[in-house]
């Protein structure tokens, strides 16, 4: 073809990136890659290996060691041996190591980018211009956190040995997201890359060794799903950080239940892309290109659900289909393509199957009529319009270059449709009216919201989801806490076994008047309520004297309490000043009845008058603490390297179940309930099982303190049985449970149904009188989700 003909046709010619260095690197490892353990590459103990393939051609790319139990044991042992020394290094020393890793990435950026494109199938423009620079940014950013760790996280210590499992869609970037904060804060790592895309992790291991990273600090074990399962189940690992599918995340939650492992899950999504009629339509169309056809749609936060306001829907779809036709699908190393290859034939088959299902359910199919490369796994840009909200393609994550489109009429309907999903990872809102955009952003159930933008990421801005998109944050200060644990909780002892519930001793009758009988009811929706089963239990003092009776709550009582809590959603939108005033009022009213509550504690538990008075005084002080924090626990403004800001907004989780500890019946109850309601949550609380009367007395304080109905609900009964009901309830968003180790295990396992956040003590005793261990930011952080709202501005 002549130059003149190119000018006539304005067609693209190939612009291939050289892969000579990458192919040479692969050739040097033609015999196969081993695991990277304790600073050296070693073969699998079993001698087993497997092949990895090039998505664009289907050809074998390399041979990888297949990790087994012995390999994981060796990696964990190396990490454990290195961890104490690594943590003892000064923050400055660790910062210098991370800085060296960042510089090493920059020096070898082109090699990493090419290997990533070959191994993953994504366009070289994406690996070169996004993945690798952002990976270097993560190491630079977290070098800074290492440098200032002693002052910024003075009351925390490293978690310890961390197992990390990353997906195949952003292999090198996901490595940086996880490895950088873990190492910066004094942890050591065993990383398991995806079996489809392990090569850049192994290349990074070479570079880390050359940069002088001490042996054992970073270990990489390659393998298939079973290797990851061995890592998850290993007893000597302190934390698991996983990015991948919701299905696997649910299994990990179940398998780590009761192990005491810290857990971060960043899972799937079905993110809404909301376009209002005053949006810049051409800008929004380009946003769709970035939202769903970036990385072939193989992005957990891909804006795959288009919600377009009716008035502009026809025009928007017309322009979007025209733009689809200009996209180019080709070989990953061609610098002029927009989309590369799907990761593997099995994923391509899944995409094709779901699209056919969507069409059979009534969607209209639009696909760009463009040439696809021969061989390999390729799929064209695809739009399904006229999709119903309940269609499988609107509810299931396709994880491919497929956008599904629906329309809406009002902002309220847009929010309703956007939140009509079990996921909650990300969202995009497009409107030239910033007030409308921010109002909608605040109402979306998502961990990240982009305004007039999409797929923006930075190391300084937390990323993570809600609901079945997982829990925990990666990046920024929020992400640092995922790799730390409070000093005040280090060395906690197992909770002493509570004595068996005291039995009432028979009392001989006489002719004096009996006391007027009083059975404490449940407290649901601001009202005292009899238990559904009409059963009660007698509460006896240590000497066997009956001190009262409480209702025996059951499944229906919990259901009613959850419904009441959901109906009190206005509490989450109340001003922080209003919540603070009410907490102060509760403290004031409790103070007026301090002697009564102290007497109750003594009567139930046998505590001395001095200890009972001290518990009541501490409870009043704790209410003051959370009244003080209610209007001061605020978000922040991140300044990522773009013209714009990201607002880090702490939001109430929603409806939270609370299983109170058996000890400290008043103080334990308030220490858990107060931070939750201070931050706007609504609570269903199960008081101390052996000593519940302090909590049932307390609801009369709530009734006289202007607490709206449904904000605090109290259901007495068996802690274990009620915990099971709350953990399995899909309308409970989080569950805090303090008690036996068995209780913690049960709560974590059953919470996997809707992947609710849990906060448990694994049977370890908390000194509720110790402010460092029992109040403040440690609890407030667990009472909120941080939503990051990106707001670009300027040119």
TrEMBL record:
InterPro entries: Ald_DH/histidinol_DH (IPR016161), Ald_DH_C (IPR016163), Ald_DH_CS_GLU (IPR029510), Ald_DH_N (IPR016162), Aldehyde_DH (IPR011408), Aldehyde_DH_dom (IPR015590). Keywords: Oxidoreductase. The active site is at 266. Transmembrane segments: none annotated. SUPFAM superfamilies: ALDH-like. Residues 42-487, 537-761 form the Aldehyde dehydrogenase domain. The keyword Oxidoreductase applies. The keyword Isomerase does not apply. Pfam families: Aldedh. Belongs to the aldehyde dehydrogenase family. This is Aldehyde dehydrogenase. It comes from Rhizobium anhuiense. The lineage of its organism: Bacteria, Pseudomonadati, Pseudomonadota, Alphaproteobacteria, Hyphomicrobiales.
